[in-house]
Amino acid sequence: VQLQASGGGLVQPGGSLRLSCAHSGFSLDFYAKAWFRRAPGKEHEWVASISSSGGNTYYEDSVKGRFTISGDSAKKLVYLQMNSLKPEGTAVYYCAAAWGWSDSYREHTWYDFWGQGTLVTVSS
Fold this sequence. Notes:
Structural class: mainly beta
Strand content: over 45%
Order of helices and strands: EEEEEEEEEEE
Helix content: under 10%
Number of helices: 0
Number of strands: 11
Distance between the termini: 37 Å
Oligomer: single chain
């Protein structure tokens, strides 16, 4: 399985971006998907997760109400719509996938497959 994130770029505070994660290889229909981010000098930070069915979504508190994770299994895509971006959102964003579900969905170590990351810079 390969994951490839795209859609990053430079955006002003308050702006929006939509990240995409394309996956190839075998089906990820039974995999949970997630977005993490890593700011310079910091550890991986969980941002959001979506269950394999797409019926359940979870968000880190600081992005609730501003970010939306969604998936399109037919197109093999996972999205992260980011609105009202803040400078502290500057980071490399990674998509990830893991089999099934676990209470460890916030932990980057639970995920089996990772994309290469896309840089988001929030600055005026």
